[in-house]
Amino acid sequence: MSLRVRLVLLILVVVALAAVTLSAVELETLVNLLTSDAIAYSRLTGQQVSALLLDHIQLYAESNPTPQSVEEIKALWSQIVSDDTQLHELLVKMASSGSLYDINVAGETGIILASSNDAAVQTSMRRYQNFEIWDKAPWYRRTLDLLTRRPDWEITVGLGIGDSDKSIFTIQVVTSSLFLRDALRPQIVWLAAVSGGAIGLSLLLTMLATTTALRPVKRIEDSIDRIAQGRVGIEKPDDGMAKEFRVVESKLNLLGQQYRGAREDATELRHNVDQLLERMASQLDVATRLAAISRLTGGVAHEIKNPLNAIGLRLELLKARLGEPDHELSGEIDILSKEVLRLDRVVKTFLDFSRPLDVHLQDIDLGLLAREVTEFVTPQARLAKIEVVFSAPSEPALIRGDSDLLKQAVLNLVTNAIDAMPRGGTLHVKVDSSGDKLTLEVSDTGSGIPRELRDKVFQLYFTTKTGGSGIGLAMTYRAVQLHNGTISFKSEAGAGTMFRLEFPANVRHA
C-alpha cells in the first residue's frame, strides 16, 4: 500500500470516527429525549384516565343505591365504567393524540371494560413490554428496536378502593413505536447526510493535498519499483490493491448473504413460535372448558341420573304388572325404555366428555338410525307446524359405529333444526351413499346462522338459544370425530341451514 493511500485512509478514518461519534452522541440525546417524553406523556395519560374514572364513578354513583360491601362497590364501579359512553369518547380522543396507540381499562379478571378501540372491549387485556423497563436498556439497543423490531409498550396504572393495595381497575396506556420512529427518522437522515458530507469533503481535500504534497515521493517510489522489478523506463500500473479490495468486497457480500439467511431463519422461527403459542392458547382454552364441564356434569349426574333410574324401574314394574300387553303397547314401552337408557348414556357422556370415551363399535345402518330419530321427533315437529321429509337409499347404509353416540348426534342436529323454525317450515333428513362415503344431511328452512357466529357454532357452551346449554353441537362434533367422520354446514340468511355429516362406509359388509 502506497504512502498516499495510507494517508488518505488514515485521515478518512479519523474524520469518519469523529462524525460517527458526534452523530452517536446526537442520536443518543434524541432517543433519550423522545422516549422520556413518550413515557412521561403515557404516565400522565394514565393518571388523567385514573382521575377521569374517579370523577365519572362519583358522578354516576349518586344515582345508584349505596353499596353495602366491597364486592357491591366493585360491581357498581365495573357497571359504571362499562356503560359510560362518554368515557369511551374521551378515551378515543386521548388515544388519538401524541404517540399513544390504545387506552384500555380492565377489571380484576383482566377483561377490558372500556377502551379507545371498540374491538378490544370484553376481551382479555393483551400485555406488552413495560415502557419504563425498556427505557433502561442502552440507547443503541433502543434505537435498533425502533428501526428494526418495532415494538409496542405499555404503562399501567392501578385504581383501587381507598388505601387498598389491590386494584379494581388496571389502566393500560399502549404506546406505538411507529410514532417515535417517524420522529426519529428525519433526524437520522439529517445526521447521515451531514456525516456523509463531512466524510466526502474530507476525502476530496485529502486527495488534493496528498496528490500535491506527495507527487515527488510518488515519482521516487515508482522509480524504485521499476528498478527492483527490472523494468527501468517502463511504467506498468500495479493493480494488486484493486484485487485485494475485490476479495474483501466478495467476502463482505458473502457475509451479507449469510446475515440475510440468518435473518430469514429467525423470522421463520418467530412465525413458528407464534403458531405454537396460538395452538397452546387454543389448548389452554379447551382445558378451561373441560374443567367447567367437570363441575357441571357432577350436578347434572346427581339431578338427572336418579330420576332416570326411577323411571326405568317403574317401566319394568309397569311391564310386569301388565303381563303380556298387546304388540303396540309393548312397542311403546320398549321405546320409552330405550330412550331412558339413551338418556342415561347421555348423562354418562357428560361425565366422560373431559376424558377418553369408550366407543362400542358395531355394524349400524345409518339410514335406519336416522329414520328412528326422525320418527321420534315427528310428533314434536307437527305440533310446531313443521313438515318432516326423510329419504334414504333402499340398500342398507352400513358403518362401524356406536349407535347411542350417533343417535344423540343426529338428534342434536334435528332438534336444533326444529328450534330454528319457530313459525313452521320444512325439515329435511337425507341419507345418501357414494362409493366409500356415507353422508347424512339435516337441513331446515329457518332464518339461518348469522355470518359473524358461524365460526363459533361447534364451540363448547356457545349458544344463541335462551336457556340453551351450548353442549349439543360440541357433542355432535365429538361423536363425528370419534367415528373418523367430518361435519360441515352451509347457511344462508333467510334460507335456512344444512348440516352435512360424512362417514367412511363399512365396505366389507356393504
Describe this structure in words.
By secondary structure, the protein is an alpha+beta fold. It has 3 domains: 3-187, no CATH class; 239-356, Orthogonal Bundle (Helix Hairpins); 359-504, Heat Shock Protein 90 (2-Layer Sandwich), CATH 3.30.565.10. 60% of the residues lie in helices and 15% in strands. It is built from 12 helices and 12 strands. The protein has helices at 3-61, 70-83, 85-95, 131-135, 139-149, 177-213, 215-229, 240-322, 327-352, 366-383, 403-419, 472-482, and strands spanning 100-106, 112-115, 129-130, 152-160, 167-176, 362-365, 386-391, 398-401, 425-434, 437-443, 486-492, 496-504. The chain has a 5-stranded mixed beta sheet. The protein has a 5-stranded mixed beta sheet with strand order 7-9-10-12-11, with helices on one face. Strands 6-8 form a two-stranded antiparallel sheet. Helix 1 (3-61) packs antiparallel against helix 6. It is elongated and about 130 Å long. The termini are far apart.
Write the layout of secondary structure elements.
Elements: H1 3-61, H2 70-83, H3 85-95, E1 100-106, E2 112-115, E3 129-130, H4 131-135, H5 139-149, E4 152-160, E5 167-176, H6 177-213, H7 215-229, H8 240-322, H9 327-352, E6 362-365, H10 366-383, E7 386-391, E8 398-401, H11 403-419, E9 425-434, E10 437-443, H12 472-482, E11 486-492, E12 496-504
Parallel strand pairs: 3-4, 7-9
Antiparallel strand pairs: 1-2, 1-5, 4-5, 6-8, 9-10, 10-12, 11-12
Helix pairs in contact: 1-2, 1-6, 8-9, 10-11, 11-12
